[in-house]
Design goal:
The protein contains 3 helices and 2 strands. By secondary structure, the chain is mainly alpha-helical.
Length: about 190
């Protein structure tokens, strides 16, 4: 029995199987990627909903493979029956089956290439998001600085307005005092 701890959708799970550790890790990795793909497609889903949708997707794939396997088993049984009486027709049938099998292998290889590309794209998107996190923080910091600057500008404008009002009052007072002084000087000249 082999034991391994795997991480699926952020949680760790112990796995025990007669299969190799690499095989168990590969299966867990596939499930983790499927759950991540579904969770990323709809961030409002709960973990249990993501798990159920992932299970449905994997089960659908399993059923497709099972049906394909059943079809191939039936074809193999028919060929085995025909193989008891070898002739050109059987050889022709074997070639068709081999071509069909080769086509299926090519399709599987294409699907695997698509899966690999999607994984790569997903990793690139994850990296892009990680690179954007510091930028988000920098933007938030700049917004805070802007708010602080706006507050300080408001305070400075109020202080400037108060200063102008006081300066105006002082100028009026100065004019009044000058007029009073001129009046006193003028009155003093008249008295002489």
């Amino acid at each position: 029995m082999n034991k391994v701890t795997v991480k699926i959708h952020g949680s760790e799970y112990p796995m025990v199987s007669d299969k190799s550790k690499d095989y168990m890790i590969k299966i867990a990795h596939y499930v983790d990627e499927e759950m991540s793909r579904i969770a990323e497609a709809n961030s409002l889903l709960s973990t249990s909903q993501v798990a159920i949708l992932s299970a449905l997707t994997v089960t659908d794939l399993l059923f497709e493979c099972s049906e394909e396997n059943d079809k191939l088993v039936k074809e193999n049984e028919e060929l085995a029956k025909k193989a008891e009486k070898p002739n050109q027709e059987i050889q022709l049938e074997m070639k068709k089956v081999k071509m069909n099998l080769n086509n299926k292998v090519e399709e599987l290889n294409k699907k695997q290439a698509e899966i690999d590309k999607l994984k790569s794209d997903l990793e690139n998107k994850s990296n892009d998001l990680e690179e954007m996190n510091p930028l988000k923080k920098e933007i938030e910091d700049l917004k805070k600085m802007l708010e602080e600057a706006n507050e300080k500008t408001g305070i400075a404008e109020k202080l400037a307005s108060d200063f102008q009002n006081k300066l105006y009052d002082l100028q009026l007072k100065n004019i009044e005092l000058e007029q009073e002084l001129n009046y006193i000087k003028a009155s003093g000249k008249l008295l002489k």
